[in-house]
Design a protein that fits this description.
alpha+beta, 23 helices, elongated, membrane, SecD_1st, transport, SecD, protein transport
Length: 814
């Protein structure tokens, strides 16, 4: 064992040991799409008295955190996104309307003196005019500290004592009488604690007990002392408790409280027509405090617990089956080295899982697909190395006795050395696409970008470190050295053997290949124009509800029934036998219930398994972000390839990428599948895959052209294409195993994802060979630039001409 192998082995052992430790000791955070729950995206808005800046959003986040804690949700997550958005995840919560109502209320609590009743011509307060609860309300001190009773029907006169005060807002009380209020004497900041209690003994039912503190206690005493000076039955003897510009209670001070004395003790009650839920909700809002600025719900997602569990189970089975089929394929094609690569794939799974735990990322359904997809990247790296090692082994020739001149280990070392540049370039382009997903996408798709980055880095460690260590340790054994056929390197493989025997010239008719690309583009554009692109709710805004019905429901029948119920623009899709999806414009809670009632009636019962609502402003923003991400992806890939290769290669590769994007969008238009956030993830992944193929081909073109600068570029390109076909075929088969498993076994979301990738990989493989290369040939013929210089061998030193002294040699000799 060489020193380099020992160092690699120690490093690989350290990485695996740390990964195993993290996997055993750290719990994984599952996204809501895998465990069920509700996600809300709240956006802060400016108010007349406050600006929704970054500081206001942070203070709003703390208020929301207190409210969520009071709800008793297990393992909630609240994070700020940008300067104005707050993402709230509530596992297990299946009533998004109630959660949004509790979190979205400003909950500005104030207590006002009542100046008197208002005339019919008086203007109400600015804001929404509430309609109080039915039944009388009271605000009383704690038992033993005085009392305050409701006056019942108010008189129509104003209090002379308060007539000199500045006129305040006009609000209806519990009975609908319009009251003119004075400036707030007490706010929610003066409340130390609010508790929902049930008083069966006094017959008041559910009420909210308030404990006042400091200035709040003094303000309450002063307010009730002034109100007690008004005669009994006078509106001015009342105190109005207002929540979000709505009087929720306006009790009258008890006659036993003397003028100028007030209610002391710092404790009072809000009683009225409360039930248990409303009393607890009001106490929760008071305890949480008022929001510094208003918030608006711009996105809402709910996933049922059964759907989350089923998605996790089906995705895990698809990943295991796809990985197992890929491992068997590698072992069949590359024999012993393929089996070692399969073992390295298992190590990849451990490393990527540990990295997910280390960064504290949340595993979502698209994120799980990102990990599965990164397996294909690891397979691609292994295939690149093994195919190059086969070439190096065959190039070594044989002795007169028929023995190979180059050992399998030496051929493998050369394979790693020559394949490294192609592996690095292809993985960096995929990381670029993943980084754009993280920068411009949101929600689960952003999680896909994170996990894809982790997966790509883990795949490079798996292929370039662990596979190499296992292979070097195995090939150093004499038992293996004596049997080179066991290694999988002694034979070139069926694809390479067929190509060498037939010696085709795929670029002989290079002008015909672009015609096929033009035909595919025309077909795709026709689908986009004729069928139209079915944008998902992420890009258009609206409501998407997915149901599982007891009996099958015809989509046209459901569409007609929803139109009769007042939803003529509803779009209905069915998948399977009992799955039905309804997409409409944004709906209120009442309208959402009507849609559910219609579907339940048609299907003999229906269970809501997914519910998403996106505001129109967020939808346009996501659509704009998707276009920016796609544009930056194409520009970034072109810039990177121009730096690493030549501008002609970069332009050809990006043209092939644009071809792949249009064809994939057109295919989804013809299939009638939605273009949503998951499709965006698949599209950018296809961009990365297509660039991988182009990088591998152009890397071989650069190497062959530098070695034979006098050869025509068309001949060099044809040779490079034939030499990389075995890698393209074997990598594609490995990816197809994984994606086919996802398409067949995973849920609807990942099925569309897998279908998009299957189409994209097929189109990308074709375009990288038969669109990018012919275009590069035409551009090179027009540019007239010289061929690339040969790469200087590692460690080679420049030879000085005879008689030339070294740089620091003065010529003096002693």
């Amino acid at each position: 064992m060489t020193r380099a192998t020992r160092v690699r082995a120690l490093f690989a052992f350290a990485v695996l040991a740390l990964s195993a430790y993290l996997a055993v000791t750290q719990p994984v955070r599952l996204g809501l799409d895998l465990r069920g729950g509700t996600q809300l995206v709240l956006e802060t808005r400016d108010s007349p008295s406050a600006t929704a800046d970054r500081d206001a959003t942070d203070r709003t986040l703390e208020v929301l955190r207190r409210r969520v804690d009071a709800l008793g949700v297990a393992e909630p997550s609240l994070t700020r996104s940008g300067d104005h958005r707050i993402v709230v995840e509530l596992p297990g919560v299946q009533d998004p309307a109630h959660a949004a109502g509790v979190l979205g209320r400003t909950a500005q609590l104030t207590v006002h003196p009542v100046l008197g009743t208002a005339a019919p011509t008086d203007r109400p307060a600015t804001g929404k005019e509430g309609t109080g609860k039915d039944g009388p309300d009271k605000a009383t001190p704690a038992p033993g500290k005085g009392s305050a009773k409701d006056s019942g029907q108010d008189s129509a006169k104003n209090s002379g004592k308060n007539s000199g005060k500045d006129p305040g807002p006009v609000l209806p009380d519990e009975s609908g009488a319009r009251l003119r209020l004075g400036p707030p004497a007490l706010t929610g900041d003066g409340v130390e604690n609010a508790t929902a209690r049930f008083d069966a003994e006094r017959g008041t039912g559910w009420h909210i007990a308030l404990d006042l503190r400091g200035s709040g206690e003094q303000a309450w005493e002063k307010l009730t002392a002034e109100a007690a000076c008004a005669p009994a039955g006078d509106p001015a003897r009342r105190a109005a408790i207002v929540l979000d510009n709505k009087i929720i209670s306006s009790p009258q001070v008890d006659p036993s409280v003397a003028c100028g004395t007030g209610i002391t003790g710092g404790a009072t009650q809000i009683t009225g027509g409360f039930d248990q839920d409303s009393a607890k909700e009001l106490a929760l809002l008071i305890n949480g405090g008022a929001l510094p600025v208003p918030v608006e719900t711009v996105e809402q997602r709910t996933v049922g617990p059964t759907l989350g569990a089923a998605a996790l189970d089906s995705s895990a089975r698809a990943a295991l089956l796809g990985t197992a089929l890929t491992a068997v394929f590698l072992a069949v094609v590359y024999r012993l080295l393929g089996a070692l690569a399969a073992a390295a794939l298992a190590c990849y799974a451990l490393i990527s899982y540990a990295a997910l735990l280390a960064v504290g990322a949340t595993l979502t359904l698209p994120g799980l697909a990102g990990f599965v997809l990164a397996i294909g990247m690891a397979v691609d790296a292994n295939v690149l190395v093994f195919e190059r090692a086969r070439e190096e082994y065959a190039a070594g020739g044989r002795t007169r006795r028929g023995a190979p001149r180059r050992s399998p280990r030496a051929a493998l070392t050369a394979g790693f050395r020559h394949a490294f540049s192609a592996i690095a370039d292809s993985n960096l382009t995929t990381l670029l696409a993943a980084g754009l997903l993280f920068a411009f996408a949101s929600g689960p798709v952003r999680g896909f970008g994170v996990t894809l980055c982790i997966g790509v880095l883990a795949s490079m460690v798996s292929a370039l470190l662990i596979t190499r260590v296992l292979a070097e340790l195995t090939l150093s054994r004499q038992a293996v050295t004596r049997r080179p056929g066991l290694t999988g390197l002694a034979r070139p493989g069926r694809v390479r053997t067929w190509l060498e025997r037939r010696a085709p010239d795929p670029l002989r008719h290079r002008r015909r290949w672009p015609l096929l690309a033009a035909l595919a583009l025309a077909l795709a554009v026709t689908g986009i124009v004729v069928r139209g692109v079915d944008y998902g709710v992420e890009f258009t805004g609206g409501r998407m509800i997915e149901y599982t019905t007891t009996a099958p429901v015809d989509a046209e029948r459901a569409r007609t029934a929803l139109g009769d119920a007042g939803f003529p623009r509803a779009v209905v899709h069915t998948s399977g036998t009992k799955e039905l999806t309804v997409r409409t414009e944004p709906l209120s809670a009442t309208e959402g219930k009507r849609v559910t009632e219609v579907v339940s009636r048609l299907g003999g019962g229906a269970e809501k398994v997914r519910d998403e609502q996106i505001g129109p402003s967020l939808g346009s923003e996501l659509r704009r972000g998707a276009l920016i991400a796609l544009g930056v992806a194409l520009a970034g890939q072109m810039l990177y390839l121009a730096i690493r290769f030549r501008w002609t290669f970069a332009l050809s590769a990006v043209a092939a990428l644009a071809h792949d994007v249009v064809v994939l969008v057109g295919a989804f238009a013809w299939l009638g599948k939605p273009v949503d956030g998951v499709f965006l993830a698949a599209l950018l992944t296809v961009v990365g895959y297509s660039v991988n193929d182009s990088v591998v081909v152009f890397d071989r073109v650069r190497e062959l052209w530098a070695a034979d600068r006098a050869a025509p570029f068309r001949k060099v390109a044809g040779r490079a294409l034939l030499q990389t076909v075995p890698r393209t075929v074997n990598t594609g088969i490995g990816a197809v195993f994984i994606l086919a498993a996802l398409a067949v076994l995973a849920g609807d979301t990942l099925t569309d994802f897998a279908v998009a990738l299957l189409i994209g990989i097929g189109v990308g493989t074709y375009s990288s060979m038969f669109t990018a290369l012919p275009l590069a040939i035409a551009l090179e013929a027009a540019s007239g630039a010289p061929p690339p210089q040969p790469a200087r061998p590692r460690g080679a030193r420049t030879r000085r001409p005879a008689g030339e002294r070294p740089r620091h040699d003065t010529g003096a000799r002693v």
